[in-house]
Each structure stands twice: as C-alpha cells, then as structure tokens.
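Lab notebook, page 48
Experiment: co-folding of the full assembly
Goal: obtain a model of how the components sit together before planning crosslinking
Operator: M.T.
Materials (sequences as entered):
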Amino acid sequence: DIQMTQSPHSLSASLGETVSIECLASEGISNYLAWYQQKPGKSPQLLIYYASSLQDGVPSRFSGSGSGTQYSLKISNMQPEDEGVYYCQQGYKYPYTFGAGTKLELK
Amino acid sequence: QVKLQQSGAELVKPGASVKLSCKTSGYTFSTSYMSWFKQIPGQSIEWIGMIYAGDGGTGYNQKFKGKATLTVDTSSSTAYMDLSSLTTEDSAVYFCARGMGITYYWGQGVMVTVSS
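Observation: model returned without errors.
Model output:
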C-alpha cells in the first residue's frame, strides 16, 4: 500500500497568517492527490484535487502544489472558519490511502 | 445540487450484519462511481471500496474483502454497503462519497456501534 506521511501533526496560526501542510507519498502518485478539510462531527470536504485544482466553491486562499512524491497545501490569510483537520489522500493506486491528518487551530 | 443522504445510526450486536444506505440526488447516479470509507472517531480515514453504478463493478481494499459488500439500486439512485460478522473493531463512522480515487461529494456519515 502507498503510505502517506503528513506533517505537521498539528499547528496553530494567527488570523491572516499563511500556513503550509506537507504530504509525502511512499512512491510516485502522478499528482493523483487530494486535500480534504474535516470539521468536528462533519464529513470531509474536498478542497484540492489533482494536486493543484481548486474545487468549486473553495476560497482561493487555499492552494495546492507538488509532484512525484511530495505535495503541499497552503492556506493564505488564515480565517477562523479554516480551523479543522486536513487530510491528504492519494487516488493513484488501490487501496486509496490517507495521511494521518493535520489539526489546524486559530491562535 | 448534489446530495448524498445516509441512513441513521445503527446499534448492532457482535456477529450480526448491517446494511447501510446512501440515497443520492442532483446528478446522474447510473454513470457515476460511489466510494465508501471508514473513520474511527479521532482517527484518520480508510478507503473501503468503490462501485460503478453503471454495471455494478466493484473494487475493494483487501482489508475489507469479506467484511463489506457494495451494491447499488439504480432505480432509486441509492448505494448500499453490507457489513457482515461485525465485531467491536467495526464500530466507526461510515461515509459514502461520489467518485473514485478523488471523491467530490460526501454523505453526512453514519455511526455504527457494535455492542452486546
């Protein structure tokens, strides 16, 4: 199985700050990488797909980049509603696998 | 708009089976994929498998083969997941989500609790 190593495990950011979350795949995944945001008691919401494509309705302060095995999610201008847990997920090879998650809090 | 409405919470006894449903609207169900996921509260997400509604073709995570069976009813635009021989390790929230690989819309999730 492809292992997805996400870092950091948690972070806190001030209002307006820019943060980045990293995701490392154990083998190349050809940009079949998605980022999801999950809030307590809710289902995950797709933010970014194919590494850098912004899902409809997602604010442009979210952006994704990367290739090969290394990917990142950047959140510019941190807002209170951005608090939650963020997951990366590879959709390249069965079984599709997720990172352990990054908990983002407002400082 | 796209909606995936999952059935309500389940409390089941060890050894029993349960069938979860995911009723969809707002898109063409019969030409779409549906994926299912498991999440133990406080933990990450696991992919269980997916089904193509057009022909019922399935793909499973080896870990869930024999545990989960995915089916669809195109007449009601509903996807189902049967979970069998339940143990306490199957207690979790289960999600359906439209798509394969990349999943664009998710159901609200259903809590399955396995307890005697």
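Interpretation: Chain A touches chain B at residues 32, 34, 42-46, 49-50, 55, 87, 89, 91-92, 94-101 (CB under 8 Å).
Next step: discuss with group before ordering constructs.
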